[in-house]
Give the backbone structure.
Amino acid sequence: MSNSRQPFNCPPQRGALTTLVYDFDDGHVIPEHRHPEDQLVYASHGVMTVRTSAGTWVVPPQRAVWIPARVVHTVRMSGRVSMRTLYLRARMVRSLPRSCRVVNVSPLLRELVLHACRFPSLARRRPSQAHLIDVIVDQLEAVESIPLQLPAPNDPRAARVADALTRDPADSRTLEQICRDCGASKRTVERLFLTETNMTVGEWRKQSRLMRSLQLLAAGEKITRVAAEAGYSTPSAFISMFRREVGQTPRRYFAG
């Protein structure tokens, strides 16, 4: 319906559910914005990175991100991205939280999203469309979240450490050195991370490396470079981490 050379415009809400189909080039960024509707953004191809003031979510292919109404966010594309979006009237899906989540997309939900995107909008006054809306909502009520979130700490000391870790995932300094260079002891930063992100600094760093690797793999980078940029000494060490965290090797994950 659209391509990355055209300006990105969100459609006006015309029914209970509005759709948008967009294809983007690698590196394209949708600038900061928000919607009055809840939003399901599905990546049928490529990887999207959603950022809000609360953190970062990486959306791999065949997954989706749930963005509640009025949450200010940006979206960055890694690789060519085929984005399929559903805008739903706020709180139609009551089981999903009022914060962003990356969710698994079942084969049935995938087909429902693609079918719905054949229409600019769906209205309950049309019986066939009302049935489709109800099935989509039922499927969204049952989706499972997946741990591809990187929560953002608020304390300035912890925020400086988080920025250093994301800016250079392959930084060879120890966590103690990084914390000290950011103006706090490791013990203080560990306490702040646990309080504000519910993760240790080490867990946060590993998650940051995983999310960075997903972006690079989606952009077509070779495993050797991805491993090095994500901070792993060998490709085999990186592949082992990826399989442990995601359940598949990078090749099989993106092929699936």
Summary: The chain has a mean pLDDT of 88. The chain has two domains: 17-141, 153-255.
